[in-house]
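Input structure tokens:
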């Protein structure tokens, strides 16, 4: 199915038209005539196993907002937004079909691990995505192209590009091949707890209170390439946990872990939340959620 590009054209999507024009101007490479860049994009297509009809979308997907001062609209943030939604949809779809005996809580936990920043960054690392990224000089100098957050965002942006260019089935194939969602994803092999605390906390409040908690960034510290975020998690308007991390997602996980410890429901390692029985596939690898160390108390 290739309906997304046609749909976007009917809606008058300017971004799509710009990249189609760029691709045409670059002898089909989508790189504005830059032969070296065009060759790199061709290699990336080979790595992904996808031949793009509009390679300009892939150029956009690997362009960080810092590149030559382009800003968010010139980078991959819009595709990242789309790819994040596609990722969750196709992963949930895959788990629903392949894990017919898993309960909703088990499916939520598996979904959370599969779409975690750590899982995405590791998948991007295996594909060598860092070598294809276009980043600004300051980010390059700081080693930013290898940051887990940058790699995870790039993976989502590439997925968004695949969806627009090739359709939902192609996006699903990429996710299943590279992330292998299933019960073994997230099992720890290094002695650290790798559970998805946000999923556990959400499941607890949904069952007990028929509602879900909210997360808010209350502090950001450090330069753009090395920030530390502090997040508070609230329920019914009151704070229940506080956490810090190098990304917003890690800080949210730390805050959720702190909340679970405070309300006394943090499950022991190997608890029921690590379920996933009845899935129709074996995962290729063991991966975990970002390791977090929740602060001692609320500020």
């Amino acid at each position: 199915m290739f309906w997304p590009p046609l749909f976007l054209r009917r809606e008058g999507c300017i971004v799509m038209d710009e990249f189609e024009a760029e691709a045409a101007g670059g002898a089909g490479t989508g790189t504005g005539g830059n032969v070296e860049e065009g060759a790199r994009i061709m290699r990336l297509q080979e790595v992904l196993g996808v031949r793009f009809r509009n390679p300009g979308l892939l150029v956009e997907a690997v362009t960080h907002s810092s590149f030559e001062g382009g800003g968010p609209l010139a980078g991959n943030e819009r595709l990242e937004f789309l790819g994040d939604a596609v990722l969750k949809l196709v992963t949930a779809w895959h788990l629903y079909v392949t894990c017919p005996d898993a309960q909703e809580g088990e499916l939520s936990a598996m979904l959370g691990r599969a779409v975690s920043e750590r899982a995405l960054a590791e998948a991007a690392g295996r594909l060598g995505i860092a070598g294809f990224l276009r980043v600004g000089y300051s980010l390059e100098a700081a080693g930013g192209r290898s940051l887990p957050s940058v790699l995870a965002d790039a993976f989502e942006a590439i997925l968004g590009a695949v969806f627009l260019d090739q359709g939902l089935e192609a996006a699903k194939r990429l996710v299943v091949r590279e992330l292998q969602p299933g019960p073994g994803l997230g099992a720890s092999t290094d002695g650290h707890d790798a559970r998805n605390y946000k999923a556990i906390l959400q499941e607890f409040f949904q069952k007990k209170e028929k509602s879900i908690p909210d997360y808010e960034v209350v502090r950001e510290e450090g330069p753009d390439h090395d920030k530390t975020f502090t997040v508070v998690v609230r329920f019914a308007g009151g704070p229940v946990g506080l956490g810090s991390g190098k990304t917003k997602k890690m800080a949210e996980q730390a805050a959720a872990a702190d909340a679970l410890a405070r309300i006394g429901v943090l499950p022991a390692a190997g608890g029921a939340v690590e379920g996933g029985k009845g899935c129709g596939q074996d995962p290729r690898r063991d991966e975990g959620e970002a390791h977090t160390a929740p602060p001692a108390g609320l500020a």
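Residues 77-98 form the longest helix (22 residues). The domain at 3-179 is CATH 1.10.1520.10 (Ribonuclease iii, N-terminal Endonuclease Domain; Chain A).
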